[in-house]
Amino acid sequence: MSEASPLLVPKTNSPVSSEPMANKPLTGLETNKVMSSILVALCSFSCVFSCFTDCFKGTDGSRKYGTVTKKGLWTYADPGSVDLSKYKIRIADFVHAVFVVSVFGTLVLLDRKVHTYKNVG
């Protein structure tokens, strides 16, 4: 998943999740605020988590993915003879995560459909 994918989810779902239900304006408004907040939080987590992933070429030549830890890359695939300890978490990963989530938050909050709720009726 690319880092742009979590940004597209709130953009495409904001017209659906930000409009209150016509038959129950107050309840629908509160529900949609919560649903939009959960959606933005999940996409923010996805952006941050993607900063702590990496890939390597396996012994068979295919690309394998994993999560970066203090000890090295943690992967579900068999690494074979590849040394995964060189894929350790660095301070740059945390800096990258802070910048990614700040850009994501800025772009989401600049979308008027995400933070503006109109009461229908």
Automatic annotation (TrEMBL):
Pfam assignment, any one: DUF679
Entry keyword annotation includes Membrane: yes
Location, primary (coarse class): membrane
Residue numbers spanned by region Disordered: 1-22
Subcellular location: Membrane
Keywords attached to this entry: Membrane, Transmembrane, Transmembrane helix
Transmembrane portions of the chain: 91-110
GO CC annotation: cytoplasm; membrane
InterPro entries reported in the protein's UniProt record: DMP
Any single biological process term in GO: endomembrane system organization
Domain of life: Eukaryota
Topology in the lipid bilayer: Multi-pass membrane protein
Membership in a protein family: Belongs to the plant DMP1 protein family.
Official protein name in the record: Uncharacterized protein
Organism expressing this protein natively: Brassica carinata
